[in-house]
Every structure is written in structure tokens, then in C-alpha cells.
Amino acid sequence: MPETRVRQRLSREDRYSQLVDVAWHIIREEGTEALTLGHLAELAGVTKPVVYDHFTSRSGLLAALYREYDQRQNRKMDDVLAKTAPELAARASVIATAYIECVLFQGREMPSLLAALAGTPELETIRREYAVDFIGKCRTLFAPFCGEPLRDAPLWAMLGAAEGLAWAAVQGAISELQAKEELCAVIIAMVRATLPRG
User: Fold this and answer.
1) Does position 164 have pLDDT exceeding 90, yes or no?
2) Is the pTM here over 0.85, yes or no?
3) Among the four 27, 63, 86, 138, which has the fewest Cβ within 10 Å?
């Protein structure tokens, strides 16, 4: 990471992005326990009030990192989906691949970030926001292939499968390829279950 201790005048948006980047660096290099607003201010070359102005608390900072991760995951999915044929298997593969790859890319950082947020109101809020957004995206994406509208329960089950498979891949219990293939199969089965039998 480039040296950031020299004070620079940045726009509010650029300063926010810089602080998020430095926070991820701290988590990667020193662990989540080392991520305090004071330490972030020191490494970013700003005063503590600047960091507090952006995040208000350590939980607020951790929640901001979770949201940044979620937005990055969504951008990656959207970019690939824009170039994907409008076919069930192709779209299911994109969703499965993007979900698993994003979790694996964040690897060690996300589980420790989630552990640090555990029990906070911020975590419950952002996890629900993320889940609702992801389910809504999948409902819209797979609607053309469904015989009837997707119900909430199968969509929540699919999200649970995605989270479980990603966790297993991070832990090394299954391979990345196994996680992607299984999640893709779960999505296809969920959609096909809406088609008339016979």
C-alpha cells in the first residue's frame, strides 16, 4: 500500500474511498482487531475527527466495509450479466460464479469482519438489506424462465445455500469449483420447480 501519512486535501467522496481502502488494508495485514478509528486515522494521514465524521463509530466503519463489499459484488455480477446470453443455465452460472468468487476473494477478511459486527444492530440491518436486494435481483433475473412467479421461500433457501457453499469453500471443506457447480444446480432446480409437471 502506498504511503498515506502525508496529508492530502481530498473531496469528501475521495476521502471516504481512501479510508475504506486503508481499512481493508489494515484488516488484511493486521486483522480486524487492529481496525480502530484512531489507527485508521493514523495510517490514512488524517485527524480522528475526519474518520468519525465519515463513520461515527467502529461498528459504523465495519458496516460501511460490508456495504462496500456488497456493492462490489453487485457490480461484478451486473457487468458479467450484461454480456451473458438470456438462458437459464448461463444466468445461473453467472450468479453462482460471481457469488462464490467474491466471497473467496475477500477470504479471511469477511468472516472476521462479520464476527466483529456480530450482535450489533448494524449487522442485522445490512444483512437484511443485502438479502432482500439479492433475492429481488434473482427473482427478476429468472422470471422469464419460470412457469409461475418465484415464491419467497425458495429464494431464501437459495440464498442460504449460497452462503453455506461459500463458507465451505472458504474453509477448504469443498473446492471453489464444487461450490460454484452446486450453487448453479440449486438455482436451476429452484427455477425448474416452478414449471408445470407432466
Assistant:
1) yes
2) no
3) 86
